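User: I'm writing a short report section on ligand binding and want a predicted complex to refer to. Could you take this sequence and nicotinamide-adenine-dinucleotide and write out the structure as tokens? A short remark afterwards would be nice.
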Amino acid sequence: MRAYGSVEEALTDVLRLSRAMTYKAAGAGLPLGGGKAVILGDPAVVKSDALLEAYGRAVDSLGGTYVTAEDVGTTVEDMVVIARRTTHVSGLPVEIGGSGDPSPATAHGVLAAMRATAEHLWGSDVLSGRTVAIQGVGKVGSVLAGLLVEKGCDVVIADVDTAAVASLVSEFGVRSVPAAEILETPCDILAPCALGAVLNPGTIPRLSCGAVVGAANNQLLGPEDAGRLAAAGILYTPDFIANAGGIINIVEELGDRQYSWVRALRAVERIYDTTGEVLRRARREGTTTATAATAHAEDRLKAAGAAR
Ligand code: NAD
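Assistant: Sure. The structure tokens for the complex follow:
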């Protein structure tokens, strides 16, 4: 849910997001297609129970071919309101049998992708002693920071929200730099966990990292930025492979079984293998990692189409 400038802008965004969702689900081997919905409007101004219930009715009219969940501008609590009008809603609170906020699962998935990336690049998946710079310590970045500290990493964080930075610095003793400096901070792994399009012709020459592994969606501004990263000697682990933990967690809620965090975490851990597979494919086929990830997802889509 966002204050889009126009209906066209919203339509462009929802098509781009649903395509990314398709690749994310296929890349993670999930039994899902891809779909996304957008609600036009500033959540702080126009969000109401009536609006969310109307959205719930719209989702319900699709008869279960689309299942909604929280994302930018919506919360776990909003899903409860939507659930008054449809059963095709996920990411419900844990107290009522849902899987709750997907962000911790996303953070665990990014960590698994980082370990696999380290293994590929440096021959060991042990992260202890590695410097990791996190751009954005919101719902995903803050959990990731804690997990990396536990692993013995030297963690550097930045966020435009200075209160969020201060709280993590005091909780975990991590270092911080101003938001404008995080991309050029020398580190082993850069983890974009704030915005899309952070990897672009303007930023790539300034990066001072060995690898990029983060949660943000659509990190490359354009497809040619994958080549720019490779030419700069930076290993890019494609975003939709690294950040699939949230959707993997939600799939655990959709089945008939009672949701279990332990089982979800086990499923999220498979991102380690998927990441390794994609990085090795790129090396083997002499392509960028972005091309290899797309090919990996398209293979699964083709196989699903053939099975049908
Ligand atoms: P969030 O809104 O909780 O956190 C984003 C943080 O980035 C905020 O603290 C914000 O202040 C900060 N930020 C914004 N601009 C910044 C800048 N220029 N420099 C530094 N910090 C900046 O969002 P989130 O749920 O943590 O998600 C982070 C990213 O990961 C988003 O791109 C999201 O689409 C993607 N993602 C999230 C999930 C999930 O489970 N939450 C799953 C997949 C992908």
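A remark for your report: Residues 173 and 232 are 32 Å apart (CA to CA). The chain has two domains: 7-96, 103-243+276-294.
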